[in-house]
Structures are given as C-alpha cells and as structure tokens.
Amino acid sequence: MQICDMVTIARHLNLTLVVPELDKRSFWADPSDFGDIFDVDHFINSLRDELMIVKELPLKLQLRTKKRLYSMPPVSWSNETYYLKRILPLAKKHKVIHFEKSDARLANNGLPIQLQTLRCRVNFQALRFTPQIEALGRKLISTLQRSGQFVVLHLRYEMDMLSFSGCTHGCSSKETEELTRMRYAYPWWKEKEIDSVVKRLQGLCPLTPEEITLVLEALGFTKDTLIYIASGEIYGGERRLAALRAAYPKIVKKEKILSPDELRPFQNHSTQMAALDYMVSLASDIFIPSYDGNMARVVEGHRRYMGFRKTIVLDRKKLVELLDLFQGGALAWDEFSDAVKEAHKSRMGQPTERRIIPGQPKEEDYFYANPQECLGSNGGLRDIS
C-alpha cells in the first residue's frame, strides 16, 4: 500500500522515484530488500509510461546526500494539493527528498480518478513477486486445489500483534506479563497502558483461535473443511490451536505442505513467507481474516478486483458480544449460530460503497480494501491504460 501511494505521489509531482527501501527495524527484523520480494525490473518497466523509477540515486546525488539528506514524514492522509504545495517546493530545493514514513500518507477519498486508478495499476499489475516466490506459491496453490475447495484463515494471533495491541484475552498471567514487557521494550511504540477488556469489547482485538473456532462452526463450516492457516508463529503454539484442530482436522500450513528444503531460502524472512501466504489467500475459495490488519485489507481489495471473491469480513465487535452471551449461557447454540450468520450476510466481499467519514480518515474504510474507483460491476480493473 505504501509503495503504491509513493509511486502515485511521485507521478503526480513529476519526480523520479528510487526503488523503495524496506523497514528492517520492526519486531520481525526481516533483512529482505525490495528485490527479495518483488520483481524489480517488471516494476520499473511496467510503469515506464507513467514515471521514471531508478534502482539507486545517480552518483552525483549520492555524494550530495552523504553530506546532507533531507528527510521528513509527510502528513498522514494528505490529498494531492498538500503534495503539490508543500512537498514539491521541498523537492525542488533539496533535489532529493526522503520520506522516513510512508504509511497512510495519502488520503483514501477525494483524490482525482487518475490517481486512484494509478494506485490500482501499481498494486494489481506492477507489483509482482519474484519468480522464486511465484513458483513456490503456485505449487502451494495447486497442492491445495487438488484436494478440492479450501478456505484461508488469516489467523493474526502472533506475538507482535498481541503485544502492541494489548489484546491478551485468553492468555495466562505469565503470557500477559511477557507481552506487556515486550511492548515497553520498543520505545517507538507509543501506546503503553492498554485495557485489554475494553479494547476487546470495542472489537479492536483479533479473535483468539478458540473464538474463531466457534465462529467458523456458527457460520456452518463442517468438520471436513480444508483450512489453510496464513500466519507466522501462533502465540502459545499448538496448545492454542488445539480447539481449532479438534473442530477442523484438515488444517494445513505452508510448513506442512512444502519440504524443509523448499522453504529454507525463505526462512527468517517473514515478508517473503507472508508473500507465499498472500498468493494462497488470493487463490482461496473463501478468505477469512481474524483481524483487519494491512494484509487482510489488501487481500480483501485484491479479491474484489479478481471478481468479488468471497471474503468474510468479521464484525468483531458484534461477535465478541455474541460469544460472551453464548459462553455465559444466555444464548443457545442455534440462537448463537443464527445471530452470527445474520450479522455477516452483507459482509461477504460483495460490491459495496467505501465508507467515508469526513475528518476521521482512520475510521473510514481503506482505499485498498475496496478500491471502488477501479472496479467494474463484475470485478476487474476498469480501463487504466
């Protein structure tokens, strides 16, 4: 999403874009570069008619930026006027401008149609995974498809998510302490004191593996459903997956389908491993994310582009309410199941208008989850050439 936005901004300002550098300071400490994940030459060549993209700065500018590189974060959720009036003069003055942050720096709504469709063109056409990732991803998909239909469950129940969100429902006191310590150990994470109970009731926590098991059963998924889990290491390991495995024995992960030798080049590279999960998520018959994080949003949008493929976007606030009522004995199973189905009738990835909330961009629907300017009535890109 950030890459697509930065291409769009560079094109709008008629600037040359340097192939993006990826963050290597996150919790996962992934050393992958852009070229380890994406096909660089395809990226550059497929956008040649829109803007110039270079792999590195010319030597003259490299020498200049060694002495002084002008670095800044653009203002979040800004429109094209901000970039023309505030950023372009800075680029002209300093010759090179480095965006030290690029997440959510371009507005979801209110942009000219040509900018919105360029974001889609970058996302759906210019960004292609490396041949190695593509080949292994295709093998994963074909193996799953030989078994019939399959569901991808994006189970965002990993240590970083739980620590930084402060969501500890279902964790032991020892685990809660560990997650809290980790959050305080990262100075760049500003939100330290978090009330897990309140956050969960607001629908702001990922569902636990035990909760998602009940939700899948309530939605009508039977015991013989083939479920591919797209995730990193689940916090609590196999112990936390016990209920899910008991209900759905046909659970698989990439580590079970592929051999250690096939996965070895991607080990310790969480972004490359996520790219494999991304490919499988796109190809699945049904995609269900347990949390609406960045990957879940962009997969949802990509599946809309591919023909509004079925994506069950869980209403976590409603589900938490129903789960507590059911587990507290206030709802019978049939009542719980009917309520869960009713709550998700219109949350299956069908065509819908993107929700706009003036003055609250963080609360509105993300462009990449529903790039409606780029979608025809049956899915697929409108003419963006």
Automatic annotation (TrEMBL):
Subcellular location field: Membrane
InterPro entries the UniProt entry points to: FucosylTrfase_pln, GDP-Fuc_O-FucTrfase
Gene Ontology BP terms: fucose metabolic process
Annotated pathway: Glycan metabolism
Keyword set, alphabetical order: Carbohydrate metabolism, Fucose metabolism, Glycoprotein, Glycosyltransferase, Membrane, Signal-anchor, Transferase, Transmembrane, Transmembrane helix
Main location: membrane
Pfam family, one: O-FucT
CDD domains: O-FucT_plant
Example GO molecular function: glycosyltransferase activity
Membrane topology summary: Single-pass type II membrane protein
Gene Ontology cellular-component annotations: membrane
Top-rank lineage group of the source organism: Eukaryota
Annotated family: Belongs to the glycosyltransferase GT106 family.
Name of the protein described by the UniProt record: O-fucosyltransferase family protein
Source organism (scientific name): Urochloa decumbens
